[in-house]
Design brief:
This protein is 27% helix and 27% strand. With 211 residues, it is of the alpha+beta class.
Length: 211
């Protein structure tokens, strides 16, 4: 004779089985998100630390270049020097100074920017972003600093009025043709070289074409 199991007992077993499945709530699932493996965690960490931290006074030349590198006041002082007298307006009033340093073009060309040589005057598509202390940033067209197109002498200055800059402060960007000192970037720490092609020809350019 077949023995029947009472329904309450069946229900109790079902509850125990479901509880044992361990189905997390959405909150628990979100809180337990971790890298799938130690290798994945290491890869993520390596990506985050790909660019080494800069020491005080170092300037990283990077971007769309074949040979990124770092310069300091010491290395700049060992290069051919130029001297410029400048006058510009600042928040502290009119400024007049004599700066000595290295032509920005000479420093950047050693990094070998990747300009498109198949385009006529491909370097005219180039831009340079200079970043200084406090995340201050100013942008230049490559033609502004290229002696083949401009007469300007944009410098990475190592001294002002004969007084050397402190090594920990790094060089100062000096732009003789500017009438205001906004692009005289102090505590310089990065010079990024690139082109406008991806911006002009990318999604932004396509959406603007029909407007």
């Amino acid at each position: 004779m077949q023995r029947r199991v009472p329904l309450p007992a069946v229900a109790a077993v079902a509850v125990m089985v479901l509880a044992g499945c361990g189905g997390n709530s959405p909150e628990e699932a979100a809180g337990s998100a971790t890298p799938s493996s130690p290798a994945a965690a290491a890869s993520s960490s390596a990506t985050a630390s790909a660019a080494p931290a800069l020491k005080p006074g170092e300037v990283r030349i990077a971007g769309q270049v074949d040979k990124p590198y770092t310069v300091t006041l010491t290395s700049l002082r060992g290069l051919p020097q130029q001297s410029v007298e400048v006058e510009y307006a600042s928040a502290k009033g009119q400024q007049r100074h004599t700066y000595q340093g290295v032509l920005l073009h000479d420093v950047l060309k050693d990094a070998q920017p990747r300009f498109d040589t198949t385009k006529k005057n491909g370097q005219l598509r180039g831009v340079v972003a200079a970043t200084g202390g406090g995340d201050y940033r100013a942008v230049f067209a490559w033609a502004e600093l290229d002696p083949g197109f401009a007469k300007s002498q944009i410098l990475l200055a190592v001294s002002e009025d004969g007084k050397p800059f402190d090594d920990a402060a790094g060089p100062r960007l000096v732009v003789p043709q500017d009438t205001k000192g906004g692009r005289y970037v102090s505590e310089l720490n990065q010079l990024w070289v690139g082109t406008v092609d991806t911006t002009v020809d990318g999604a932004g350019g396509a959406s603007g074409a029909g407007s």
